[in-house]
Amino acid sequence: MTPSTSTFSARLNEAAKLIEANLEALLADNARHGEIARPARLMEAMRYAVLGGGKRLRPFLAIEAARLLGMEGQGPLRAGSAIELLHCYSLVHDDLPSMDDDDLRRGRPTVHKAYDEATAILVGDALQTLAFEVLADPETDADPAVRSDLVLGLARASGLGGMVGGQLLDLSAEGRYGAITMKEPDVRQLQMMKTGAILTFSVEAGAILGRADQDARRHLVEYGRALGAAFQVADDILDREASAEALGKRTGKDQEKGKATLVDLLGLEGAKRECRELIERADAALDPFGDKAQTLREAVRFVVEREV
């Protein structure tokens, strides 16, 4: 392990611990101001969906992008937590029988298996709305314009033109709404929307909190897009090369459903070459920030080289 990789791992682990503690506090049983009550079953299932799993990559990106611009503390931590809440909602709903119909997530029964489908739907709904509540709260940032920018950005990244729209395209790719042939541009658009949009916004959230100027924000968004694309290509490679036990979820789902991925279209070696090119693109986007961006440089390598 090189010194830079060691520093990156320490930063990632530190951020994960801080995010975990903040998520625990946000998912406490006690009702907050303006709430009537927090039903015990719902809170238990929400904690099951969110706590004790995952690398917390998305909040880490928000925290590190803000740190790059000199902003640390509660703001990036809360924004990162909001993004993670929304990400976990998407996983709960993705796993439902009407969507991907998965029984395992992070090596444990999915929420609809551990509880039931109705509870899983409500867990996703509650996590999504809580994410926006956290961003809109003055505790996240005293400037209402910053909070508005964060809410707008997450809404667009997660909504019909981003993650949700990408999920519809993903279902279409299975042939649910008629036969379809997915070409390379179609696959890239699907992946950019379903997975890439939230990863890109995670970086942009840090830029917003750090009061980045127009050029700095543009460069960070370019970096986020390259990282988001690399994440999905690497995920497709893992789906072919890793075991279900290692990943903690079922593998080979796209092949079973006849759904094309970039691995299918580019070949395994072509997909790996694309990952290397995306690392170079991410590096180039960070060039204006010099050595201060080393942790973010390591993040894209981590995304590509991860084994789970």
TrEMBL record:
Cofactor: Mg(2+)
Superkingdom, natural source: Bacteria
Record's keyword terms, sorted: Isoprene biosynthesis, Magnesium, Metal-binding, Transferase
GO molecular function: metal ion binding; prenyltransferase activity
InterPro entries: Isoprenoid_synthase_dom_sf, Polyprenyl_synt, Polyprenyl_synt_CS, Prenyl_diphosphate_synthase
SUPFAM superfamilies: Terpenoid synthases
Family per similarity comment: Belongs to the FPP/GGPP synthase family.
Name this polypeptide is given: Probable farnesyl diphosphate synthase
Organism expressing this protein natively: Microvirga guangxiensis
